[in-house]
Write a structure and sequence with these properties.
The complex is a heterodimer of chains A (336) and B (519). Chain A is mainly alpha-helical and 336 residues long. Chain A has helices at 3-14, 16-33, 35-38, 78-87, 126-162, 164-178, 182-192, 197-208, 213-223, 227-235, 239-256, 259-276, 287-296, 301-329; strands spanning 45-48, 51-53, 88-91. In chain A, strands 2-1-3 form a 3-stranded antiparallel sheet. Chain A is elongated and about 80 Å long. Chain B has 519 residues and is of the alpha/beta class. Helices cover 34% and strands 27% of the residues of chain B. Chain B has helices spanning 42-49, 74-80, 102-113, 118-131, 150-161, 180-197, 208-214, 232-237, 242-249, 316-323, 345-351, 372-382, 389-395, 412-424, 442-459, 470-474, 494-499, 504-513; strands at residues 4-13, 16-26, 31-35, 57-64, 67-68, 85-88, 168-172, 200-205, 217-222, 225-231, 265-280, 285-301, 305-309, 330-335, 338-339, 355-358, 430-434, 462-467, 479-484, 487-493. In chain B, α3 runs parallel beside α5 and α6 (180-197) crosses α18 (504-513). Classes of the chains: A mainly alpha (336), B alpha/beta (519). The interface between A and B is medium-sized, with 22 and 33 residues.
Chain lengths: 336, 519
């Protein structure tokens, strides 16, 4: 680790609010990755007749437990439960509902011991949807951030390094491209195809890659005149080595400070689209959709409040992390 | 009684002691110089007089005309600043607000402390501009800072600082950021103001020539402590403290290395020009050009040093970069018998190991992400060469255990040695030295010059030494070329230039370098 990196990490750690936010966010993300084990209508573990089963990751027919149907066992059914407890036991996850609709639940039930955050207007458990929704929006945001950063950094480097005509035409192209209205394109798209998450990802990527381009381009233009870049050129070092050894690491530093904010933006846009009804189909667990339900069912305040608290909490954490990162990479504060 | 009396002042920033137990007295009408290297605590001491240091713990006492400034109330300090003490900063580009006219900015400093009618303020501004010898601006009060040259801006700053007839003027390195000739004029102006207005001046500088010519008494600072003080002439004649002796003896001395008779030419440029295109229009086409270097012919022989002198913007550095083919040139350039101006990029890259460059700023020229070993090996790897790291480091006076450290662990002088080692590793025949000493403290400057001379003697390297500092150049260059507006206006042997300068501009440069007309 170079002393510069070490100094940056120390700077980041010095920002207590950012550090705490990172920890909380990391733990939440880690937990949500195992959402199936936290909120599910299947048991985590079943012991039946001396055999071990993990229904969360296996599909087990009801006949296995001595039932009648050859389809997958419905563990919410008391008949199935009785069958299992007769010759063994089962452990349910803390929240006994998945994010999908399940039979027999009440629609718009207020929070209670059974549904700690109540149910929505399709009878789905809100707590379960919250956990799955958090995972989906963070993973979606992360994937979008990484993909658009890679494209943006490559595009910015090409512009900044080659300059001239390539730079000029790409700049003009981006100006035109960025003025296309994302929302209308999505509305038109929604009437042609059924918007899956991959479609949505692809369309949003078409527009989000431009955020970093200007920054990387400017950093490249700046770095071309650094003395140590000139020195390397005078030493006879090949141009592509100069780019990867001297210029790119410098340009990347400033992009890091932007990443959390791009992530926040991606999460917000996804929630926005879902709220407006142009986003994911409602079978996906989504925070935006939860907010929309809150708006449509004002007599069920737990919907709106949950969506608001979750979004506000998540975005605040990301902003705090982003601020700490920005300070940690600030060239005026890490001067050695 | 003295006007300003600092007693046992200590200033701490967290765990670092910037100033330790410093005592300093300034009498009325006296010019006091505060001398020391960068980081010695000069500026902090000056700022603490105005109580402008933030986040610091201060101890001791600062009395101005009997009034204690340490722990004084904010309101009292505001009345005190500008009214009794004025300050001029180093950087004239950033110390004026670019959004306001100069008239407005000078008026502001008057209005804060004095109640005057608009008309009276205008009259006073004109008077001030006259005092700082800016007659050309008397009727251009609506000018914005960007319309002025660096020297003019510094004069406006001085006008603002003396607007309320302060008793003390603090000048923090007022000439470091401007051209030598402009610097000499500004110093002359400060001396005039001190005499005419009976003002005391605290002059902070690292330039001993300025101190010797201008100041009445002198305080020498090192590592936050004042190690010696006294009357200027006495200190210069008979310095007591070891550090002062070292400082005074570290003016660049000696003359250029004796060269063999009629040595072969290493690099020669014939009618070389460099012009930078001015781009504009819808498709960014070229609409004009700036000629930075015009039709210059110059040649350097083996083991010799050509000095290139001139003010900022004269095209010195561009000339050097053109010789190395690091910028586009027209005209012929011959290097060791072959014409390199026609070389393909690949052949040129191969040739680069024979011609190297050392940059001005040792902080910017080393990549902070790389160890010293990586920095020095970069060129070797590019040319598939091998060399003994310990030997290279020893040659520039560094020890081999430093190889795996990073640049920030070294001082400015050491970094410049690393820069020289990087160039030297490839065993070049020619090195371009682009102001290699001007970013360094005085006591280090002469060491670097001595090192460069030793290396030249040993390896018969040719140098082009670019500098605006004629005093340093005299110690290393065989011949000097004086540049102005992209042209060489005078070229002669070093001593001839100094003893019998032909061109008017050369005479001006020499006068400015030795501050001949100031005192």
């Amino acid at each position: 680790m170079t002393p510069l990196t070490k100094k940056r990490i120390d700077n980041f750690k010095a920002n207590k609010r950012g550090l705490w936010s990172l920890w909380i966010f990391g733990i939440l993300l880690f937990l949500s990755l195992f959402a199936e084990f936290i909120a599910n209508d299947k048991p985590i573990y079943v012991q039946y007749d001396g055999k071990h089963y993990f229904p969360v990751i296996q599909t087990i027919a009801e006949t296995e437990f001595g039932g009648i149907f050859e389809t997958e066992a419905d563990y919410k059914d008391s008949a199935v439960r009785d069958l299992i407890t007769a010759k063994g036991f089962y452990i349910m996850p803390p929240i006994e509902y998945a994010h999908q609709f399940s039979l027999g639940t009440k629609v718009l039930a207020a929070p209670s011991g059974d549904h700690i955050l109540g149910t929505d207007d399709m009878g789905r458990d809100v707590a379960a949807r919250l956990i799955y929704g958090f995972r989906l929006s963070v993973l979606f945001g992360l994937a979008l951030t990484i993909a658009s950063s890679i494209i943006g950094i490559i595009a910015g480097s090409v512009q900044g390094y080659f300059g001239g005509k390539i730079d000029l035409f790409m700049q003009r192209f981006m100006e035109i491209w960025s003025s296309m209205p994302l929302l209308f394109i999505l509305i038109i798209l929604a009437s042609i195809v059924d918007p899956t998450i991959f479609w949505l990802f692809f369309i949003m990527l078409l527009f989000s890659w431009m955020k970093l381009v200007d920054l990387v381009r400017a950093e490249f233009l700046r770095a071309r005149n650094f003395d140590f870049v000139k020195a390397a050129r005078a030493l006879g070092v090949r141009e592509h080595i100069i780019v990867f050894r001297h210029i790119l690491p410098n340009a990347l530093v400033s992009t890091f400070t932007f990443l959390p904010f791009i992530l926040t933006g991606a999460v917000t846009v996804l929630a926005e689209l879902d709220f407006l009804g142009f986003g994911l189909p409602s079978s996906y667990p989504s925070l935006g959709e939860l907010a929309l339900q809150g708006k449509n069912n004002l007599d069920a305040p737990w919907l709106g409040i949950t969506a608001f608290v979750m979004l506000a909490f998540m975005l605040s954490l990301l902003i705090f992390i982003g601020e700490a990162l920005r300070d940690a990479f600030d060239p005026r504060k890490v001067r050695l | 009684m003295s006007l300003l009396s600092i007693k046992n002042l200590s200033v701490n920033f967290g765990h670092t002691e910037a100033v330790r137990n410093a005592s300093l007295d300034i009498n009325k009408g006296e010019m006091v110089a505060l001398v020391g290297e960068s980081g010695s605590g000069k500026s902090v001491t000056a700022l603490s007089i105005l109580q402008l240091v933030s986040n610091a713990k201060q101890q001791g006492s600062i009395k101005f005309d009997g009034m204690e400034l340490l722990d004084a109330k904010q309101k009292r300090l505001q009345n005190f600043r500008g009214n009794h003490v004025g300050m001029v900063f180093q950087e004239p580009m950033t110390s004026l607000n670019p959004l306001h006219t100069i008239g407005k900015q000078i008026a502001e400093s008057i209005n804060i402390h004095q109640r005057m009618s608009k008309k009276a303020v205008k009259l006073r501004i004109r008077e001030l501009l006259e005092q700082v010898e800016l007659d050309e601006l008397k009727n251009r009060l609506k000018a914005y800072p960007h319309e002025l040259s660096g020297g003019q801006r510094q004069r406006v700053m001085i006008a603002m600082a003396i607007a309320n007839n302060p008793d003390l003027l603090i000048a923090d390195e007022p000439t470091t950021a401007v051209d030598v000739i402009v610097a000499a004029k500004i110093l002359k102006l400060l001396k005039k103001i001190q005499k005419e207005l009976g003002m005391s001046i605290l002059l902070i500088t690292h330039d001993l020539t300025i101190v010797e010519k201008l100041s009445d008494s002198i305080y020498v600072m090192k590592d936050g402590e004042i190690v010696e003080n006294g009357i200027t002439s006495q200190i210069f004649k008979n310095p007591q403290h070891k550090y002062t002796q070292h400082l005074l003896s570290s003016k660049p001395k000696g003359r250029a290395v004796a060269a063999t008779k009629s040595p072969p030419v290493v690099i020669r440029a014939e009618k070389m020009s460099v012009s930078f295109p001015i781009k504009g229009g819808f498709f960014g086409g070229q609409i004009g050009a700036v000629d930075a270097v015009k039709n210059i012919s110059i040649s350097v022989s083996e083991g010799k040093t050509i000095g290139i002198a001139g003010g900022s913007g004269s095209g010195k550095t561009t000339l050097g970069m053109g010789l190395l083919r690091l910028v586009k040139t027209t005209g012929q350039i011959g290097f060791m018998g072959t014409r390199i101006d026609e070389f393909s990029p690949a052949r040129l890259r191969e040739m680069r190991k024979k011609m190297q460059v050392v940059f001005q700023d040792p902080y910017a020229s080393l990549n902070p992400r790389m160890t010293i070993r990586q920095i020095i090996e970069e060129g070797l790897r590019a040319h598939n060469m091998k060399a003994d790291m310990a030997e290279i480091l020893a040659e520039v006076g560094l020890s081999s255990d430093m190889a795996d450290r990073y640049p920030h662990e070294f001082s400015g002088g050491q970094r410049q040695r690393i820069g020289i080692a990087r160039a030297l590793a490839l065993k070049p025949k020619f090195i371009l030295l682009d102001e290699p000493t001007s970013a360094l403290d005085l006591s280090v400057q002469s060491q670097i010059i001595d090192l460069l001379k030793d290396l030249q003697k040993k390896h018969k390297i040719s140098y082009i030494f670019i500098s605006h500092d004629l005093r340093v150049m005299r110690a290393i260059a065989h011949d000097i070329a004086v540049m102005k507006n992209g042209e060489i206006i005078e070229f002669a042997e070093t001593e001839k230039i100094f003893n019998n300068p032909q061109h008017e501009y050369t005479r001006k440069l020499i006068k400015a370098a030795f501050l001949k007309e100031v005192a």
